[in-house]
Amino acid sequence: MRSARAGRTEHARDRWQRTSVRAALVARLARVAYLAPVALSAALPWAWFAVRDAIGPVTDVLAIALPAVVVLVAVAAVVGAVRRGRRRWLVPAASVLVLGGAAVLGPWLPEDTGPVAPGRAVTVVGANVMGTPEAADELLALQADVLVVSEATDDLAPALVPAYPYRERAVGGPEVAVYSRLPLRLLETQAPDLPGLRLEVAGPAGPFVLYALHVPRPWFTTVGAYQATVTEHHGIMRALAGRVSGEALPVVVTGDLNTPDRGRDYREVLRDGGLVDAMRDGWGGYTSTGQWAPLLLRIDHVLVSTGWCGDAPRRVPLPGSDHRAVAASVGPCNAAGTEPPLGSAR
After folding, report:
1. What percentage of the chain has pLDDT greater than the value 90?
2. Could you tell me the CATH number of the domain that includes residue 180?
3. What is the extent of the structural domain holding 43?
4. Lowest mean pLDDT: which of 39-43, 45-49, 314-318, 340-344?
5. What is the pLDDT of residues 132-150, one digit of tens each?
6. Rounded to an integer, what distance in angstroms lies between the CA atom of residue 250 and that of residue 211?
7. How many domains, in total, are found in the chain?
């Protein structure tokens, strides 16, 4: 009798334990089902880094507008979460904001490749003056050895000519002018895949090739040399990478490239052209100002061949322009024990 009662008790205990385990499992699965959409929504934005170079023009446009897109998505998520009283949906909103910060600020982080060898630096400045002479004093104050001016006009020349004995200019098209204290030799003038000038510069460390450029801005339509479709812009940057990779001499690429540093064209020209961003010797920042400032676009660049470095990068406001000038001292990277060249004035 007692044995039968004990057996029934044990059976009841086992069934209760199984029921409890099943209930706990169901509760856990319900919790997972409750949180899974939130976790997936929070993780999904980070796929940006996996697909940004794979989709082409679509992600090129998204890269340009990324800060605006991020803010709109985050605001929509917050409003939806508050209205529905579901605070867990604030997590995806926070994830989108962090993703936007990482995508924008990542290319602004310092990535110093080392100092320039003593006595071998060339101060290079790229400035889009928007066709006005108002920035002449600011440009002269930068004491550039080589000054690349986009949207140059005759009105600016009288102020700069006395300081720069060597000059070249691409008339029509991108309107790029180069003012230099170092001897120049014109190698190639503007072409459909060269929106500017290609020159040889006699630098203190030996000659180097300068690409002085004003690349058309990427947009939905083509307007002369000022604006190109996103696909056309990509083709120009691909051609630039091919040209640079084939150069025998060190290369400096300077000017308004209309290429945001979070876009695939920027990454491809560095990778395929074997270039380094001289402006990342220090913290970066946007160079497109005025109405485009909210998009935080760094589109003006000083790029140099691998083996060259950049020192003292600066971004300088220009009166009358919606660009900041970019300036850096560039040249062969310093090696331990390097001494200045004999008789060097630098």
Report:
1. 71
2. 3.60.10.10
3. 2-106
4. 340-344
5. 999 999 999 999 999 999 9
6. 11
7. 2
Q: Which two tokens stand for residue 95?
A: 């994830």
Task: Beginning with the edge strand found earlier in the chain, give each strand of the sheet holding 324-332 in spatial order.
Answer: 166-170, 176-180, 146-150, 122-128, 324-332, 308-317
pLDDT tens digits, 286-331 = 999 999 999 999 999 999 999 999 999 999 999 999 999 999 999 9
Torsion of CA 245, 265, 214, 211, to 10 degrees: -10
Instruction: List phi, psi (to 5°) of 160.
Output: -95, -30
Residue 42 contacts residue 92 (beta carbons within 8 Å): yes
DSSP classification of residue 306: B
From 54, 80, 106, give the residue that closes a domain.
106
Please report the sign of the dihedral spanned by the C-alpha atoms of residue 286, residue 288, residue 289, residue 293: negative
Instruction: Look up residue 213 and give its two tokens.
Output: 């450029």
Same domain, 152 and 268: yes
What is the Cβ-side half-sphere exposure of residue 21, based on CA atoms within 13 angstroms? 6
The strand order across the sheet containing 275-277 reads 184-188, 196-203, 206-214, 251-256, 300-305, 275-277
Give the Å distances, CA to CA, from 124 to 16, 54, 119, 224: 80, 34, 15, 28
